[in-house]
Amino acid sequence: MTPTDTWSVGARGDRLRGMDLSPLEALTTPAALVDLERVEANLRRVAAYSRQHRLHWRPHTKTHKTAELTALQLAAGAVGVTVATPREAELMATVSDDVLLAYPPVGASRLAQLMALPRRTRLMVALDSVEALQGLSHAARDAGRTVGVLVELDLGMRRVGVQTPADAVALAHRIAAMPSVTYRGVIFYPGHVRAPVEQQEAAVKEQTARVREFVDALAAEGLRPEVVSGGSTPMLWRSHEVEGLTEIRPGINVLNDRNTAALGACAWSDCAFSVLTTVVSTAVPGQVVVDAGSKALAKEEGLAPAGGYGALLDRPELVIRSVSEEHGLLDVSNTSWRPRVGDRLRVVPNHVCAAVNLHERLHVLRGDTMTACWPVAARGW
């Protein structure tokens, strides 16, 4: 039996059965932690922002991959959810009846999973090709359901999306003419914008101009989009400045991470996810080795000027300067602080989406009390 199997949640909190340690102390590290009070504050903030600017909030659940966090987002005011995989769609459809797959639905197995979603699920899909459209239309027809479609636009990310307004018009006409699919509008992802929030003026103006160009071309053909879906966490708080936007799909902001804080899109105190890790060695001068390596934090370069792969939650100036699979090297060369072997630390990773995907469960805290353990049920598949 693992430590997470030995505790239960009751009306008066968590208690270990037959152990002297608290549930948090008894966890085997590395372990993923979520600060529920910070999550709730993050949700209140984005919900208020969305209401103020009359934007629909459709959070991207690829960040956390849990039904429990999705339920909290919906309760806070989200209109539906965004997903990246059929497995995420399956899980999120258990708590939401409005699902957007922001990924081209190419392939028979992917389409079969989507068509098997509950009938009550209002499914919408983003795509940028006739090939993907034809496959979706045929699958929806055979399943006896109708699927909404958004035309994916490339506004600078250079990953997916039609390139010109003429391309968007042509694809929208094909959607309108196909059986079992309905043209709903357009979608884009400004993931290429990684400038600090206060330096995003040029990006906001460029997106506004490009969105207007596409929308005007579609409107001229009688295809004015009902939905103009965009937004990202780095640009979240400037989304209302992109004229014509109707919907935002931030994912990271529910938990936040070191990259988001580095861009000024959240405060360090808004970071609700961390990895609990144990000091396993202090033998090499100037460094502390912890048991959270690339398999717990993700080996992804960050946006913080100090570099590295994460920073301590309570000492953000101290950075995990390198990682191997099971080792993280914490740089303590410029501080007199020295943890001891066996001490436990909490690390905020650079990119929370990649880190969460490495863990089977999220251990949920309210203050210093562990109140729940949520499976990251949409991992893999």
What does this structure look like?
Helices cover 28% and strands 24% of the residues. With 381 residues, it is an alpha/beta fold. The strands form 3 sheets. Strands 3, 12, 13, 14, 15, 16, 17, 18 and 19 form a 9-stranded mixed β-sheet that branches. An 8-stranded parallel β-sheet has the order 4-11-10-9-8-7-6-5. It has a two-stranded antiparallel sheet with strand order 1-2. Helix 5 (108-115) packs across helix 6 (130-143). The longest helix is centred in the middle third of the chain and has 20 residues, at 201-220. The protein is globular and about 70 Å long. The protein starts with 6 loop residues before the first strand and ends in a 6-residue tail after the last strand. Residues 1-19 have low confidence and may be disordered.
Labels describing this entry:
19 strands; alpha/beta; 381 residues; eight-stranded parallel sheet; disordered N terminus; nine-stranded mixed sheet; 24% strand
H and E string: EEHEHEHEHEHEHEHEHEEHEEHEEEEHEE
Tally of separate helices: 11
Q: Return Rg in Å.
A: 22 Å
> Strand-residue fraction?
15-25%
Q: Can you count the beta strands?
A: 19
Protein structure class = alpha/beta
Shape: globular
Low-confidence stretches: 1-19
Question: If you average the pLDDT, what whole number results?
Answer: 94
- Could you tell me how far the N terminus lies from the C terminus, measured between alpha carbons in angstroms? 26 Å
Quaternary class? single chain
Question: What kind of sheet is the major sheet?
Answer: 9 strands, mixed
Helix content: 25-40%
